[in-house]
Amino acid sequence: MPSGGTFDLVGKQARLAELEPELNDPDLWNDPDRARSINQEATRLRRVVDAYHTLADDVAGLAELRELAGDDDAADLADEEARVEADLERLYRETLFRGEHTERAAIVTIKPGAGGTESSDWAGMLLRMYRRYAERNGFKVELLDAVGSDAAPNGIDYAQMIVRGERAFGLLSVEGGVHRLVRISPFDSQNRRHTSFASVEVMPEIDDAIQIDIDPKDVRVDVYRSSGPGGQSVNTTDSAVRVVYLGGTPDEIVVTCQDGKSQIKNREKAMTVLRSRLWEREERRRLEEQMKARGSQKAIEWGSQIRSYVLDKQYVKDHRTGAMRHDPDHVLDGDIEDLIWSGLEWRATEALGEGAPQSA
């Protein structure tokens, strides 16, 4: 089994013991969001702790079976070893998830880099890749906003979506960064090779269960008419919402949502994204301060290039893990499970080596 994860059974059992009194509190469900969050965390912890104890019993049983097995039992022994190994691998993967937001939905934002038509088309390909990944895993995707490209039929100039499913943020958190595409351009009449870039940002959905102070005086809300990719009309009401957070900072935070026909619903979704962006900003500051306190010279690469998709040479390479795939068509169709797990393992290994905190 690869290295990188830490299980911390004692810590998980202690945290579960802390949650039990809250779960038994009859007033808990007066706050549904908080109740749901606590219940999800407790369920995950119980699942992992129970799996550990079951696996420990199975390993002990396997050791006894090996001592007693004769030549005729070789096939049964091999089957039992394979089953225990598979259970051990699943438990190992649980050690790769860190932080309190693993179980939350993921807010995924995709933006093309410089390059006009090429980059917009590439951003559209990434949007499709993540939507296909979500579909393969039974996740639900809610497209909050998308601005289509006039030059590339399937391209986008911006897209933001919420992906909901088991450990959605925990899984997709390692996809944040710059993605690089190299190919013979379908938009170049001379069939030249082009390189395009697009950025992917992944944040946990921060709901009211987590306290994020937002002064109403720091927020401006604009409404406007919704429009879909390419400027096509979605509806004839001014239901789209733009939330601008001033907050006394040099850089404004702007969030838009035009997914639904209800202005109220769009505003609620936009405020959820704003809370997530404010959480992300504070998390960046906290990590930077901790790195400085340790005297570490290693940069916090929030926007670094993480993966290259080289279509004319038929490979995909993850620059963090070294993982290679030679079926880019399948990768771009959402088959990225192994790339995500290798990314989680890489991050866990980095955390063990650097002592750096992880937020997913």
Shape type: globular
CATH level 1 class label of the largest domain? Alpha Beta
Task: Give the second-level CATH assignment, the architecture of the largest domain.
Answer: 2-Layer Sandwich
What does the average pLDDT come to?
84
The largest beta-sheet arranges its strands as 2-3-1-5-4-9-10-11
Please tally the β strands and state the result.
11
Helix content: 40-55%
Number of domains: 2
**Topology as a string of helices (H) and strands (E):** HHHEHEEHEEEEEHEEEHH
Strand content: 15-25%
How many strands, which pairing sense, and closed or not: the largest β-sheet?
8 strands, mixed
The whole-angstrom Rg is 23 Å
Separation of the first and last Cα atoms: 22 Å
Q: How many H/I helices?
A: 8
Q: Which regions are unreliable across 5 or more consecutive residues at pLDDT < 50? A: 230-235, 296-303, 355-359
Describe the structure in your own words.
- The protein has helices at 9-23, 32-68, 74-94, 117-136, 168-172, 263-294, 328-332, 337-354; strands at 106-112, 140-148, 156-164, 177-184, 193-204, 219-224, 240-245, 253-257, 305-310, 315-318, 324-325.
- It is an alpha+beta fold.
- The chain is built from eight helices and eleven strands.
- A hairpin with a 5-residue loop joins strand 10 (315-318) and strand 11 (324-325).
- It has two domains: 9-94, Up-down Bundle (Methane Monooxygenase Hydroxylase, Chain G, domain 1); 99-360, Alpha-Beta Plaits (2-Layer Sandwich), CATH 3.30.70.
- Residues 230-235, 296-303 and 355-359 have low confidence and may be disordered.
- The strands form two sheets. It has an eight-stranded mixed beta sheet, with helices on both faces. Strands 6-7-8 form a three-stranded antiparallel beta sheet, with helices on one face.
- Helix 1 (9-23) packs across helix 2 (32-68) and helix 2 (32-68) packs antiparallel against helix 3.
